[in-house]
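W.,

You were right to be curious about this one. When I first looked at the sequence I had no strong expectations either way, so I just let the prediction run and decided to look at it fresh. Below is the sequence, 94 residues in total, followed by the output.
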Amino acid sequence: MKKITVIFALAIFCSSCYTVRYNVGQGPSTGVEVSAKNHFLIAGLAPVGDQKSPQELAGDATDYEVEISHTFVDGLLNALTFGIYTPTTTTIRK
């Protein structure tokens, strides 16, 4: 039983934050960064409020990098609400 508990604890503590990153055009070149929080309910199934898309955050830029992630704080809020509230952070690097 103790071995199973240790394995379970390692699996929980060794998991990383969820991140998706991709380039649009040639990727970032100016070093400008813009971030926004997007709010979801029920494990991300239902968006709440005004959602910022990567295109909106990039503005008129044609070359940029998009990173959508669950940061530590996002994951903590998700865990505390048992998956009812699931925020994500969208970062654009121009």
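Here's what jumped out at me. Residues 2-13 form the longest helix (12 residues). And, maybe more interesting for your project: Residues 36 and 70 are 12 Å apart (CA to CA).

Coffee later to discuss?

I.
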